[in-house]
Amino acid sequence: MPGPVRRVLVLGDANVDLLLHVPARLADGRREVREPVVAPGGTAANTARALAALGVPVAFAGAVGDDAFGRRVAADFAALGVDTAGLLVTRDADTCQVIALLEADGERSLVVWPPDGGALRLLRPEDVSAEAVAGAAWLHTTGMCLRDAPVRDAVLHAMSLARSAGVPVSIDLNLRLELWGLDAERGAVVARAIALADVVLGSGPEELVPLAAALSVGGAEVGAADDAADPVERAARHLAACTRTVVARLGGVGVLACAPDGSVLRSRAFEVDVANIIGAGDAFNAGFVAAMVEGRGLAEALRWGNAVAARKVARAVGARDLPTRSEVEALLA
Which of 31, 101, 214, 228 could form a disulfide linkage to 234, CB 3.0–4.6 angstroms apart? Predict the structure, then answer.
């Protein structure tokens, strides 16, 4: 098995997910009420866990509260073998909770508590180890942490350190535009993060298209001059700016990627019965990064991302129920 000698460093949000199933009506008219499930979550933390499940050495940097949920997150990382030397435990805020309302068809609605993000927002630039960044095989982070200071400054600082050290950098946008919008200040922060990234990942229609319309990256505007008919491809080309790779996740269709040389690759999704889509994007990120650090190339990394995501959404439990490398390789074969 090929594998990286150095760890992948994942920096960002760690929280717990509270999964509430919307009661389904049975044939006899009664409601099926299921018990809630509490599981470790967080977009960045989910990617770190999924990398560990794939056998990739991984370290996590972020912040949790000094509370029962924070200790649960730390214990879960330890059980998976994730290095938590960069995990800040603070008494100044509570560990964030993401409450997910799950429909019978696997769709979900999310509510964050506390609304300001809790402890995850308190990571500071000085909490980020320059040695850990420079020694990493890859740095992966998330736009979820670009909303508030000081964590947004910590993210940008880590990305800058990685670029200076020649460490590849990826960011999953996770902008939650439907919740927080994109004002001028946040737009400038996101543009700075994109400029520091070698790879930008995000949902095609929900994130890349509106983001490309709102930002001017590399001095180019999105408009009729771009001959791509597909709005997602047009947005990906714009954000790639002949400088970085942009990966657009397209749900059950698969993914589209625009490389720095302008080439566009598409990779179809694997057909599976969907049970729970929570953590699907994070699982894709893990498969993609795992393949990239193992030198498999962009096309194969897209397939790995799709395979890990497919194995993930076929599981009924939340983001903590992760596919193993053998399961992913079996699907790829």
Answer: 228
